[in-house]
Structures are given as C-alpha cells and as structure tokens.
Description:
The complex is a heterodimer. Chain A is an alpha+beta fold. Chain A folds into three domains: 3-79, Ubiquitin-like (UB roll) (Roll), CATH 3.10.20.740; 80-122, no CATH class; 130-192.
Amino acid sequence: MSEILLEIDGKEVKATAGMTILEAAQSVGISIPTLCHHEKLEPFGGCRLCTVEVEVRGRTRLVVSCVYPVEDGLVVRTRTEKVERIRKTILELLLAHAPDSFVLQDLAREYGADRDRYEKEASFCIHCGLCVRYCAEVKKKHAVGFIDRGSKKEICFIPEIAAEECWDCKECFPLCPTEALQAAFVLTLALTSPPPVADKTGS
Amino acid sequence: MSRLNSPAELEEFRQGILSKRDPDKPCITLCTGSACLASGSAGVAEAIEAEIEKQGLQGQVEIRKTGCHGFCERGPIIVKNPEGICYFQIEPGDVPEIFSETVKEKKIVERLLYSDPDSGEKIVHEDEIPFYKNQERLVFGSNGSIDPKSIEDYLAIGGYGALAKALVGMSSEEVLEEVKKSNLRGRGGGGFPAGIKWEGSRNAPGDIKYVIVNADEGDPGAYMDRSLLEGNPHAILEGLTIGAYAIGACEGYIYVRQEYPLAVENVMLAIKQAEELGFLGENILGSGFNFKVIVHQGAGAFVCGESTALMTALEGRVGEPRPKYIRSNIKGLWNRPSVLNNVETWANVPLIISKGAEWFTQFGTEGSKGTKIFSLVGKITNTGLVEVPMGMTLRDIIFKIGGGIPGGKKFKAVQTGGPSGGCIPEELLDLEVGFDELSKAGSMMGSGGMIVLDEDTCMVDVARYFMAFLADESCGKCVPCREGLRQMLKILTNITEGRGKEGDIELLEELSETAKEAALCALGQSAPNPFLSTLRYFRDEYEAHIKEKRCPALSCKELIAYYIDPDKCQACGRCLKNCPAEAIIGGKKKIHIIDQEKCTKCGTCFEVCPAKFAAVTKISGVPVPPPVPEEERTVIKKSKKQ
C-alpha cells in the first residue's frame, strides 16, 4: 500500500491509500464527531456532523470526512469557524427530535448548540441509519428498514422478519444514539403479539 | 425491414423512402404531444381520419401525427402542408370545414388562423407568427414534421446520418474532439461540459462503460425533455449511440419517469425499430461497434434526477444520492465509468456531428454555445416550449416570444431553473440567458424551466412553495436537507401566515448556509436558492410580512382582508349572490358589507364585482375600516351624488 502524506489541523499525518480523512485523523488521535459512522459499516455520509474543511490545489471546500478519501498533500482543518457553525446547526436540528439524547446533549455542550432553537417535534429517531445498516450489512437480516421519504422517513421493523430474528439478537439496540430504536421495537412487538381475544359480549 | 450494413445501404434506403414521397402531396400535420392530447387532439385525429374516408381521399391526403410543436397555449395545432398553413385550437367540429375549404378549395379558414393579439392581424404561416419566428429551433424543430412512431420519417429528414458519419467516417477520438470543440454543456442543470465528462469516462480504466439518458425531468412546469422524447426519440438514441462510441460504452440506459407513458411508449418503439434496421445491436452499420439500450422506468422521485441517486435507482436500490468525491464518469453505475447526460444534451449530439462544431458554436454566447429549450409557463400569454439561442435576453423570450403578461398585469419576476433555481426581477430582464449569467444572478439554467410571475404574486409565498416541494421530495438521507428544509418550510409558512418574527430571516440564512455547504447532493445544496434569490431581490416583501404583517402583493390569505368600498358599491348584489360563505350583508339599494368573521377569503366577491364599480378591494397590513352604520347604507346614485 502506498503511503500518503497529508496535514490535519497543522499536524503531518501518514495514511494509506483508501483510508478516509476520518480514519486518518483517528489514527493520530484527532477526534471528529460522528453520529452515523460505524467502523463495521459502509460509509453513509448522512449526518454530516463530521464535515471538515479541505484545501485541494489552493481551493477550500467542505467535505464529510467519513467518506472523503485521503490524498497526497491534502490540507484538512477539522475545527474552523464555519465547520463549527455547521455542526452546531446540525445538532440543533437533531435536538428538535431527540432533546433528551445523551449523545446529542454531550455534543451540544461542546458546540454550544441550543436544544430549544427549533420547534420540538420529538420523534426521537435521528435517521442515522445505524440499526438499518447494521442489520443489513453485518447481520444480513434486513429486519429493520426505512420507510417513506424525506421528512416523513421513519425506521420500521419488518414484523415478519423481526418476530423471527430479533428476540435473540438486539445487537442494534446499543448502537442507537437516541433510544428511539427500542421504542420502535416495542411497537413492533405489540403488533406481532397475538391479538387479544375479542370480547363477544362487549358493546 | 432488414438490417442496414453500411452507410451506403443507409443512404440507399433513405433514397428509397424519399422516392416514395411526394413533397406536393397534401399532408395534414397534427400535434399529438401530451399537451395537445390533453386539449383534445386525439378526437381531432379521429375526425380527420373519418373525413378522409368520408371524402374518399385515402392515399391522396395524408395525416401525420407528430410530437409537440411547442405552442401549447393554442393547441391542438394543425399545419396543412405543403403550404404550411397553421390552424390553432382545433376541435373535431372544425375538421369538415378544413377539408372542404383548405384541402379541396385551397382556401384559408380565417377563423382558425393565429390572430395577433395587438393588431388583430391574421397570420397564415408558422414562420410569420411571433412565437415561432423569434426562435431558433435546431433541436426541437423536427418535432413538428415527423411522426415519432415512424423511423422512416426520421430517416427521411436525414436521421442516423450523423451516426453513420461518426461510426464509419470518424475515429472515436475525433468524435470526442468534435463534441469538446462544440463546448456543449449539460442541459440538465449543472452545465458541465459534455466533452470533458465524456473524456473522463473514455480515459477511465475498465472494459465496461455506460452511457445514460437522464429523462427524470421533475421540475414543476417543465416538460421539454418529455416533449423531445415523445416527439423525436430517434434523435436521442442517435446521440446516445454516438456518445457510446466516443467513450467506448457497450450499454446505454434511458431513465425515464413512468409518469411519461407516451415518452416510454415512443422510445421503446424507437429502440425496436432501430434494432431492426441495425442502428442498435451488433456491428452497427458494419462498423464493428456494438451497443444496446435499455429503458428503465423511474418511480417518480424528483431526487432521482440527481446523477448518483439515478444510478443507485438503476442498480435496483432505493433512489438516494451517494457521496461522490469520485465523479460518476469514473465510478458510476455499478462502480463503472458512466456518462450521464440529459435528454436535450444527447439530442444536440447528432447535430454537432453532422454539421460540425464550428457550425454549432456560431449559436450562443462565449460561455454557452448552441440553443436551449425553455418551458415557458406561469403568467404568460403564450405558454409553451421555446428554443432560443443562448444569449437571448429574458425580455425577448418573455415579451417577443411569450407575448408578455396576460390581463394587463405587470411583470414581476421570472423563476428559472426549477426548484433549485431562483427568481430574477424586472431590473434584470435584459440579462442574456446562459449558464454563467443565470448563476451570477442567483438563479440557474437548470433544465430550462421558466415560470413567469406577475405583480399579484407574493415572492415569499413563491419561496415557500418551492421549499414545500423540496421538503417533500428530499430523500431524507442527510440532516441539512431533511431537517433543514423542514425547518425552513415551517419558518416560511409562519411568515406567510402572519406568524413571522424578528430573527426569522437570519435563521433562514443560517439554515441556507448549512444546506448549501453541508448537504449531500445537489438537491439539498441548491434548495435554499428560491429563498436566497427572493430575499436578495425582494427583501422588502419579507420585511413587510414579518414587521407589518402585510403582504404587498395582496396574495397571502392570512394577511389580507376583503373590503367593500362604501363609496363605490352600487348594490348590484352580485357579491351577495355569489358569496359561498354567506358573509355579505346587503340588500336592494343598500351598500354591501363583508362580515369579516364569516369571510373565508375565497376571493369570489373580488372576482364578480363588476369592473366598472371595482368596489371590492383587498387590503393588507391595515385594519378593516368599520362598517358604515346601518342607517347610512342607502346607495346614492353617482349621478345624483355631487
């Protein structure tokens, strides 16, 4: 593997071809916040929290570090004013859905994000897709998936698969940054349990 | 039909078609594009066929059902050839007269001609009508003269000649060079130079490469790609095949939305015909080049017009964009080099090859060559599809071709580039259309949507409308788009409904920055444009909504009230009779009053109040004056007033 030299926050970093900026940064102890990243999963690039500034041939742009491949001579800045501002906005947007998530609260403190900035719409799920992708890519079961699109998008267990696979697994639970997953599972359980016997004498 | 194995055989075949055609034979060309079909052209076609039979004119008069002619406002359209007499807004009942007068007697039916709205002058021929004569219809022009279901029609006008020239007369490098020299830029939105994109794929490693037609047109009001694919599918196939040859692709995909049934039908038929004659398949025209085309019907998601989402959908997965730090012309469909161009871009290719880059570059501006088809809709007299050379001013497009704003209203802005574009105000009407020019003005070329807005349009509401569209069409993968647009829509809705507050504009600007800088794909990155461009040119309207709770265009329902001017009301009773909410109090010779509590602001009273009285008005930002006391409501006739 060929060695690549890049600069992250003023530090010279050695990386190998095929690595992402995030991996290169982590290898030298530079921390970049992430919500949808998981080392066992394919890069997703959904939460955009790991956005960093790169300078390529004199031009600067924002990229997501969990996807962007390292290249020779790349200059990366992980905490510019703009990057911080964008992370703060992203956190505030997510806190409108999951105001009590510990993961989000910790990050909010670091980036000065105000959990009450936007009107609350507590759905808990922040669509990081960790559960969906873990179940598909690692477990290869596809017991949980996304339904609908855009702002109506939700995670949903597929009852037929969940009833068979999830009881003994539940490996996705600890991945969830907001505990919304457990709620979705409980809901599915309720749906798949045998229906109560109808009371024929009832009104 | 058997396969044609060389350019010579193609030429011979073409001559065979031409020799069977008599250019002087009467031919009735009828537009059967989607817009004309919607206004009844299928019925007209039946009437023509019935009339031909009734009059015993089979074989003597021909009917040609073509694709869209562009002048959709006046459809269904008939052109009687060889004279080129144009008739508009034809109904089946007009057909017998067209036959008895025009076909038999060679006389003109005056009442069916185009009549100039200003002078009232009747115009007979297409090229004299202002809507057509100011256009440069290089790409779209053939639509009106060929039956899209007939490959013979396409061959008769020289079709597949460019393919023969490219495959046999030129090396693939030469084809690529010609397209590069033409500086053809992508007509789908980004305006990326097609030749450079092709070159990237050509040079990318890999044996298997793809070419793709993006026919997932989804901008509100835009239908130029649809009309091209419906009306001239072979031109797109020919362009695609030439592109495949230039980059070394063996397979092509047409991603077309299934909501375009006629386009799907016509392109599928065209592929079948082209395969039969050997323009697709193995050893095309004896050149040794093999190429096949597959049609993929999209399920109608706006985001699938985005290149990576389109490719993901083609692969059979959920149509969501993927991060592309490696361009899709290097790593695209199934991670292989893939050139994706829009319908109109591909349709330009045969022209460039047959007539040369030098010919092509004489049209347009320094940065934007050739022509562009725009879909001219909204508050415009001549709704339709127009093709103009790049560099024509917005003023010429809207006023010379489009005929200006109907109803004596004033022009306010033109929204270009679809939901990712922006609004351009009156002071920039002399802007020359081109990729860079429109971007500089805060809008974009996009795929060519052009929505004209008049003085009654509220610009904040326009921004809200596009934001609602995009929030609905966002795939939901990334936070800046899914969540950012949701919040932007909420704030814009609040503003238009009178709940705007100080700081809203700044908050919208912050969300715009996050979407622009951090969203995953072009949909999210460009989503703030409708807001940013309206803020840039119409900031006063935002401020009026927020600070004064006033809608200057008198359009936002929550911010206006209907009011009857007691000095003007003549007690005609029309508003009283028509009000669906029974909100009007009045009586014989009594000044009418609107009960604001009951009023639903439907606007009926405003519409029915006779223009000579103009008593019903809209007010905004000020309290509704108290009603005239009961005892003073008797109407005094104007003449007796003094």
